[in-house]
Amino acid sequence: MQNSSDFSDSEIVKDIEYVKKLQEWINDNDFFSKMKKGFSAKRDGFNSKNWHKAVDGKGKTLVIIKTKDNFIFGGFTQVGFNGNTGYIKDSNAFIFSLRNDKGDRIPANFTHNGKNRAIYSGLNHGPWFGSGSDFILESNLQPGYSDFGKSYNLPNGITYDTNETKSYLAGSYDKWVVDEVETYFI
User: Fold this and answer.
1) Where is the TLDc domain (predicted)?
2) What ranges do the domains of the chain cover?
3) Residue 142, CA distances (Å) to 18, 19, 78, 84, 157 in order
């Protein structure tokens, strides 16, 4: 794996504004100077077991998802995924939207609301952020689900459990198709 500090090996993060925002939000020069793309669904397969094999136990983890409709979003956790089944606490975790159909509100990041369920680790699922599945990818990393706002703070003026929150990250609650998943860690 080559160093990926500038996302030059990314098929998703091509806009310098996105790179700058991710660097600003994560605010960890050590992470960016050493990070590597450890998983790509197109390269390694659309399979949660492959994803967990690549990312479990790595610590700080950045997940970036692109849908077929060109929504780009993801999450960052300081503690990472561990392969054990269950929720994991991480008060520094956040999710983000780099591109959606809400234009004026992005790029934007959303902090965890402080409860214990920042991420979920389990071999039968891919990346899972939030207790109410703020976003989750199933075993073949398809389909995805997004119930944004259950565990992560919403943008001002948006109410939880509405069509707007269910479509904010990926365009719909469960009708979105993943084009690529990239996962970075040290």
Assistant:
1) 11-186
2) 16-185
3) 24, 26, 25, 21, 30
Tokens coding 6? 């500038």
Query: What whole-number distance in Å separates Cα of residue 173 and Cα of residue 135?
Result: 9
**Would you state the structure tokens that stand for residue 102, as one six-digit string?**
């809400």
pLDDT for the residue 104: 57
Q: What is the pTM of this model?
A: 0.94
Residue range 87-111, pLDDT digits in tens: 999 999 999 999 987 665 678 999 9
Query: What are the pLDDT digits (tens) for 26-78?
Result: 999 999 999 999 999 999 999 999 999 999 999 999 999 999 999 999 999 99
In the three-class reduction of DSSP (H, G, I as helix; E, B as strand; rest coil), residue 160 is classed as: coil
Distances 170 to 90, 96, 177 between C-alpha atoms, Å: 23, 11, 9
> With the C-alpha atoms ordered 10, 119, 103, 41, is the resulting torsion angle positive or negative?
positive
